[in-house]
Write a structure and sequence with these properties.
Layout lengths: L1 E5 L3 H12 L3 E5 L3 H8 L10 H10 L3 E4 L2 H7 L2 E4 L14 H13 L4 E5 L7 H16 L5 E5 L9 H6 L4 E5 L2 H15 L5 E4 L1 H32 L3 H9 L20 H14 L5 H13 L2 H9 L8 E5 L14 H11 L3 E5 L4 H8 L4 E2 L12 E4 L11 H7 L4 E4 L6 H6 L3 E3 L17
Parallel strand pairs: 1-2, 1-4, 2-3, 4-5, 5-6, 7-8, 9-10, 9-12, 10-11, 12-13, 13-14
Antiparallel strand pairs: 6-7
Helix pairs in contact: 1-3, 4-5, 5-6, 9-11, 9-12, 11-12
The structure holds uridine-5'-diphosphate-xylopyranose (UDX).
Length: 450
Amino acid sequence: MKVTIVGSGYVGLVTGACFSEVGINVVCVDIDSKKIDNLNKGIIPIYEPGLEEMLMRNMKKGRLSFTTNIAEAIKDSEVLFISVGTPPDEDGSADLKYVLAVARDCGKNMDDYLLVVTKSTVPVGTSEKVKNAIQEELNKRKVNIAFNVASNPEFLKEGAAIADFLKPDRIVIGLDSQRAEDLMKSLYKPFTLNGHPLIFMDIVSAEMTKYAANAMLATKISFINDIANLCEIVGADINLVRNGIGSDSRIGNKFIYPGIGYGGSCFPKDVQALIRTGSEYKYELRILKAVEDVNNDQKLVIFNKINKYFNGNLNDKTIAIWGLSFKPQTDDMREAPALKIVKKLLEAGAKVKVYDPVAMEEAKHHFGDSISYYDDQHETLIDADCLAILTEWPEFKFPNFKIVSKLLNSPAIFDGRNIYDKNEMREHGFDYFCIGVDTTKNLIASSSIN
Ligand code: UDX
């Protein structure tokens, strides 16, 4: 079976790499010829652990190739995945122009049966539009060629995408024909061994599953952040409360870590998109509106703490920041809390010195020369008035606190990811602030670390 993947971005490349890894012949397509040239030379446009090695290995084996020639790729394939971008248009809704252009290309170029699978995260009802676009092109050509559409949303976490693809919690596929089901079963067979389930459903339900999953996860995060803020006020410790509730298997201990709000390319966009779908159908998703509000406020919690510590006067203060990406193991800064926090610090007149293990180049696109960049985390501390942790990169978890304390002007740490133990911080002599814990209070039990 030959598979074409249109859109060589994050999802397309991971999908292409993993399908070819199990021996399937894959052609990855993109309209960006520079990107395709680079990929053919082994230059990968994104940072994702394990991806580069996997792409290179399969290119060498001859079962993975890159091209801009979509017409050729379509003619040769039985299954085609659409994984192009759906950037928000002016009113914030997903712009389907790239998705539908691929659908039209399919209709214009296919000579034989084709299963067209949408992997891009698209609003509920998009597969129907894809189907119509293909059929219109076939009608224009006055040909009668069989095809099917399917929806196969991805649940890949950045930084762990390869593992998520190879050993998925589940694979969700929406379709409306036996032929499509048989094809998808055989394509995904290598990934469903060892009990990873393939869940078939109708197309609209599959489209909805993607949004409902991300909205549920975003809800967990906003819920725990809301509770964290209350913990701090009443003198409870969210780390203990999290352990206390997470051990109830109905709640579970995953995705209830408090922090400075969710970011990334999915949760913010998908929560907004689902709220919009609700309003299109005159249904108000009240919980999700609150999830979004809590998240927007949460992104400023660390700024507010810093501002309060310096009595509302950040003018000429220097703030060292460790971590800029929206989470560890990625250079992605889309919707990262750091964007909002750095902006507020600069507006308040502070100087900002930053270090991130991989997101420095990305950060330069956002902040230019308005902040200073350092290759070493300790260098950010020289002449800084405090340290703020915005991403929980492993290398920040066990610093030499003696050096940190010596380099900082005032011994203040603002930990947006709760990576340190408050008692230990006190022993080191720091003024320590984190999320959901009143760190000025003496609690008997020790706050646990992530
Ligand atoms: C997410 C989904 O997990 C994935 O299934 C979907 O396909 C795409 O969106 P991703 O955006 O890569 O993946 O990141 P994820 O690891 O889910 O984290 C999202 C955000 O939530 C990050 O900003 C992270 O810091 C935050 N988060 C996560 C918390 O604040 N607390 C938690 O307990 C978990």
